[in-house]
Design brief:
alpha+beta, Immunoglobulin-like, 8-stranded antiparallel beta sheet, globular, 19% helix, TIM Barrel, 6-stranded antiparallel beta sheet, 30% strand
Length: 750
Amino acid sequence: MKFTNGFWKIREEITPLYAVEYGGCRINGGELTIYAPGKQIRSRGDILNLGMLTIRITSPMEDVLKISVSHFEGAADPGPFTVIEECDPRVSIIESEENIIFQTGSTKAVVDKRPDSWGIRFLDEDRELTSTGLKNMAYMKNRDNGKCYMVEQLALDVGEYVYGMGERFTPFVKNGQIVEMWNEDGGTASEIAYKNIPFYLTNKGYGVLVSNPGDVSYEVASEKVERIQFSLEGERLDYYVINGGTPKGTIKKYTDLTGKPSLPPAWSFGLWLTTSFTTDYDEDTTSGFIDGMAKRDIPLQVFHFDCFWMEAYEWCNFTWDSKTFPDPVGMLKRYHEKGLKICVWINPYIAQKSPLFQEGMENGYFIKKRNGSVWQTDMWQAGMGVVDFTNPEAAAWYQQKLKTLLDMGVDCFKTDFGERIPVKDIVYHDGSDPVGMHNYYTYLYNKAVFELLVKERGEGEAVLFARSAAAGSQKFPVHWGGDCSASYPSMAETLRSGLSLACSGFGFWSHDIGGFESTATADVYKRWCQFGLLSSHSRLHGSSSYRVPWLFDEEACDVLRKFVKLKCRLMPYLYRQAVAAHENGIPVMRPMFMEFPEDRACEVLDRQYMLGDSLLVAPVFKESGDVEYYLPDGKWVNLLSEKVMEGGSWKKETFDYFGLPVLVRENSIITVGSCDSRTDYEYGDGVEFWLSVFEDGGIGETSVTDLRGKVVINVKAVREADVIRLFVTGGNGNWSYKVLGAQNVKVLTI
């Protein structure tokens, strides 16, 4: 949101109150309060008829600064509030004649007390991260509509890039963009996003979280090209400056604050196949798909039933359509006997025709209007109401309906929608602010479903397939990229969005292989299969057409088979990365700059990514099979062809549908499993250790976990001259090794 017209002019309808100078402080334990009047005080009379901003600096954990800026502190703030995990770090507050230094860990806020020098500098030791200064921090009043806004502008350095802010389909580097934190169902081809997260990360290694789930507006080097501005309606603005030292370190700190991703079950990493959306299907159809995959030796692990498992006009009634599926219990039993897990589609809306609508209305389980009536709409489902998850009884009621499905044999849920949440004339059970609840609603919705799965299936067995999200939603995986189109540009924008979401602390992510809208060509489908199976989670899903490979061509079956089996064998490596995401918050799929923060070439790359810390993946986006990608310094070896390549430059290659750049980083050990038909097996039994190119003196370490994430084998490789010493501890001794590429080395096992 813009408040100025160029550098000099304030917009005519705006009355600003800027923080102009230091006006005193109070220190209370670990809290520093600064008073910043709206004009320079040169005489006693200047303090009259004057607005002032109150700034509180605290620290919820080491190397994290919370900045609270308020105008009228008596203004009501009914919530909702971003869930923050706080501890009690040691802080120091030192005041001198010229400044006040608030320090936690190596991170400092330095408040300038000198006349004509107002500002707060945020430092990592003596390195400046960012700052706010004269006419940056403000309270703005719009005289035309009476609305008031809190505004902050933080400095951007020369060459500083901004990333994140949720799952965004626009350019990966956000500089120059206007970004609105407002969840909407808008597909993947615009600035609209399903998952708006008010947290950004920069290539300087710090991040900023605005602690407001509502309509935060960003001007990223746009209104002021030297600054990133964020604003929101109201009388108070809270934000956190998070300093992890590196992009990875800051993501770890951010997820310390907002929650770590839960560890999904190993079976969820296998291939998911769906009915698609508006296609016709019954048990014969779904069984035909399942049997067709088995006949073609394409491992399938999860089958998903989309919306029409329920009767039309009744979404959601949580009851199988008896005309289409007369024996759901028997059907699910038969599918379980084939080794499949079952997922069904749900959303948080109850159509008026649903038998549950009357029950929900009578018990006050829906969002209401101010006059006490139920808020309803004809959009999506006729007369539908929206479950009010701020009402504990409504949440329990919703969970009970889902429990019936779990008892029937359903294993997980696709928690669709959650973006179309009303704001005008709305009252929530707990009195929450409707604007704040618009984005935060999906957090409560997915939390309710995820917690039910944990309760019923146990820790480590809960998984969702969610579309919408808010800050903290990473705790409830998995999320997928929404309604993309069946084209290369949409495939590329999908990858961009996943990398942006990774910069927002989400450890696990998926997308619709082959695209959702329209039907892909066989070429696009096969290339998307490669990309999809080299993602943390992999699902074939479409809108009006099926996504089984034989409907494209027979080669599509071969391509899909190859990459499903590859993923199954890579599970010891991938699940270790998943455990790391759960423990430290670092996403399984991550942008290049996050893994190589010192390599300036990596800062803008958005058509390749790291899959864990040792595999580089560059999907192919051209029918010709041509792909250009960048390799950071070091020697790399293609996992599929074992071709060794020297890094530090751009590469251009051409691949058929059975190959692409999947490159193993120097000094790495890729743990490869013995099973190519499932993703949930004993990873340590028969595991192979694939050794990449090791430089002289190079050291590589890794581990193998069990299906609960517990380490069962530790592995270390050290190269000395022409010998690689391989140290293996734990396990049953049933392991082997393989040296990738034509390396003239000897391996000694110890």
